[in-house]
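Following up on my earlier thread - several people asked me to post the actual chain instead of describing it. Fair enough. Here it is, all 182 residues.
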Amino acid sequence: ANYLAASKFTAGEPWGVEIKLPEGFDYSLANSDEHHALAEWAAMGIGAARGELIGAYDPNMRGRILLPAGARGPAFLVFENFEAILKYNQSTAYGLAVSLLSERIAGSEQQIASSWPRDDRALSLSERQALQQALKDKGFDPGPVDGVIGAQTKRALRDWQRSENLPADGYASADTLMRLTS
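Reply from S.P.:
Thanks for posting it. Predicted structure:
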């Protein structure tokens, strides 16, 4: 609790909300640098997966879009409390697990509305390194070839995806690796 308070976690404020993205959404907006007020996201056609987005939350609250499984999976609009959780552990999976578990502990029976891609799997270290090397070989700068899919690798991946007319979600999947190396 002390760590969360020091990380600017605000009790009573939401961590985030599951959202639905409009048809033709520019997936490159789903990155850690794109923070907008809730009203701005709503003006782009983004709505809550269940219920109302504007009215349920402060329209001035700033957040970013999180796609934990890329364009094929659920989408979330995450706020400052989610960022505070990530200060303890930078893993998106950790942050999402803690956030969703906290809702269950608080009594929510709400399930994630969107389905996760069943054929998706985590890439191994060597596969992540191969993905970075393939990006580098194609002229996209992923940073060091270290197997860490950080902001620079995601940016390079989004740039490559745009060049291939794919959803530019920056998500490193087995399918993406196969496309990059074929």
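The longest helix spans residues 92-105. That should answer part of your original question.
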